[in-house]
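Q: What residues go here?
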């Protein structure tokens, strides 16, 4: 109904629409009121996905303006619920479903996608969706949600984004007998056939869309995530969001926390609950950051302690399970099974949870952190909210409001003794839209760890003294479009400094260059220039 009278006449729409012409603002207002009528977040999700199908630009103008309200619906935590019942709420396909049966024909499937200029792909095999486990093809909700944020938060044009699920089956027995399940109903294919599918997919992407197509790996299970990142990071424009994006946002929050606790990173002892993608990614990036502070690598590694499902990660521990990535951080220390006991033994200054075990930060654990430290740092990063290691309320109340807290999914502010604390959302959504935008517009040929560390530092710098005063270790999410643009400009700068950029000539004003590439959410005119003449009215 925002088509003008002239557009209606030219396009033969006259009479097919009610006579009133609405402005985009009027439509936004109505859509927002409709959205707020729903009680359940999952219904809001369906409503918004319907809007995305009907009117993409309106969806994005709304999502950009009301990002704090809308992100928790189209993204974590609600997207987790949506994935768990993706078949049941299914209305219209979105994204590309490629299965193990398509081996040998992946290129042809990419050719079925109607858009030709694809710049960004988010791909999952659905094996570790958030902290919810193996959801197979139901995992499509994640690439769809992540790419919605590419546009809403980063301004990457939606037509340039492609969500992909690589369906190799699922080991989730409930899904195998779920009559709404939309994926292949057999156990996961692993080994050579799986690897060949990934390899063929990446080849096909380059053949179809060119070598500078960004491929973001998302929510793969641990061993595949690390393995595929190592295998492809130097030959494709790719990164793993759960390892590198999460690392970058967590390290940004930790760097910002230093201004509250008034210390350096290297003054700290970091205890990780979990030794998976997120934890190892954060640990590795923290080491890089501490090396920049002047520590040797060994000294930096010594500051990081990991606890996994078998307990403290130590050298030669009897229970084993110390993989190569964890082994780097294995300590010469007695073996301890329980997190609470580890905490009492090593007295960490910072605790970071990323193992998707709800409540892993027990009351005793949080109290101990508060006893050992004046200002303990507690990051409960697991997603969605239901799997957080502790709630914001627990962290603040059990430390009498002294902790510096951040979580992966949003929590409401908490008031303790009359002071209100605003928990930071240490979610990779602060990182991937900006990094991706920067990589795309500069034509970078790789995404490097250096880029993620620069991004952490840049994000931490955007945290103001007023933010810190309220306990926020991230800038407000409401500013995310500008934050992403600044982070992207930073990536562009980095790419040129390191000889990785392809765009020629080098733009002088990097921020303007980024802005010029961002998607505009205002409606465009549908009137061809040949139909306009001086004096013609709207
Ligand atoms: O999607 C999110 O909220 C963050 C993330 O990558 C994950 O938890 O896997
Ligand atoms: Mg993820």
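A:
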């Amino acid at each position: 109904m925002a088509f003008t009278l002239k557009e209606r006449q030219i396009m033969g729409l006259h009479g097919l629409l009610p006579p009133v012409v609405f402005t985009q603002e009027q439509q936004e207002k109505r859509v927002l009121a409709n959205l707020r009528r729903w009680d359940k977040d999952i219904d809001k999700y369906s409503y918004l996905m319907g809007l995305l199908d009907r009117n993409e630009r309106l969806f994005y103008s709304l999502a950009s303006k009301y990002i704090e309200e809308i992100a928790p619906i189209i993204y974590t935590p609600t997207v987790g619920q949506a994935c768990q019942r993706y078949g049941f709420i299914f209305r219209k396909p979105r994204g590309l479903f490629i299965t193990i049966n398509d081996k040998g024909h992946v290129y042809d499937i990419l050719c079925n996608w109607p858009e030709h200029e694809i710049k960004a792909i988010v791909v999952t095999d659905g094996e570790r969706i958030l902290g919810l486990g193996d959801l197979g093809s139901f995992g499509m909700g994640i690439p769809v949600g992540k790419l919605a944020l590419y546009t809403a938060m980063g301004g990457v044009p939606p037509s340039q984004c492609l969500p992909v699920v690589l369906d190799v089956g699922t080991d989730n027995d409930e899904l195998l007998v779920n009559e709404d399940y939309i994926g292949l109903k057999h156990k996961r294919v692993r080994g050579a056939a799986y690897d060949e599918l990934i390899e063929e997919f990446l080849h096909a992407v380059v053949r179809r869309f060119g070598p500078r197509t960004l491929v973001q790996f998302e929510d793969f299970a641990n061993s595949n995530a690390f393995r595929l990142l190592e295998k492809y990071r130097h030959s494709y424009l790719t990164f793993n969001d759960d390892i590198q994006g999460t690392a970058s946002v967590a390290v940004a929050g930790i760097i910002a926390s230093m201004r509250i606790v008034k210390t350096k990173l290297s003054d700290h002892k970091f205890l990780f609950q979990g030794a998976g993608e997120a934890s190892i990614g954060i640990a590795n990036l923290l080491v890089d950051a501490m090396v920049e502070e002047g520590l040797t690598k060994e000294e930096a590694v010594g500051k990081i302690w990991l606890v996994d499902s078998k307990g403290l990660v130590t050298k030669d521990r009897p229970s084993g399970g110390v993989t190569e990535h964890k082994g780097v951080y294995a300590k010469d220390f007695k073996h301890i099974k329980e997190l609470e006991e580890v905490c009492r033994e090593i007295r960490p200054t910072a605790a970071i949870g990323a193992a998707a075990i709800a409540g892993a930060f027990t009351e005793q654990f949080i109290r101990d952190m508060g006893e050992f430290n004046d200002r303990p740092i507690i990051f409960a990063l697991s997603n969605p909210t239901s799997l957080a290691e502790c709630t914001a309320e627990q962290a603040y109340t059990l430390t009498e409001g002294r902790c510096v807290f951040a979580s992966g999914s949003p929590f409401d502010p908490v008031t303790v003794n009359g002071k209100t604390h605003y928990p930071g959302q240490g979610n990779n959504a602060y990182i991937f839209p900006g990094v991706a935008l920067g990589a795309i517009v500069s034509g970078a040929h790789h995404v490097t760890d250096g880029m993620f560390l620069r991004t952490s530092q840049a994000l931490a710098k955007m945290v103001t003294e007023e933010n810190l005063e309220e306990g926020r270790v991230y800038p407000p999410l409401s500013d995310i479009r500008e934050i992403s643009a600044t982070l992207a400009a930073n990536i562009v700068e980095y790419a040129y400094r390191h000889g990785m950029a392809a765009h020629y000539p080098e733009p002088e004003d990097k921020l303007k260059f980024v802005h010029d590439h961002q998607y505009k959410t205002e409606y465009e005119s549908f009137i061809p220039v040949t139909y306009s003449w001086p004096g013609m009215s709207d």
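A: Context that may help when evaluating the design: Residues 218-219, 241-242 surround magnesium ion (ligand 2) (CB under 6 Å). The chain has a mean pLDDT of 96.
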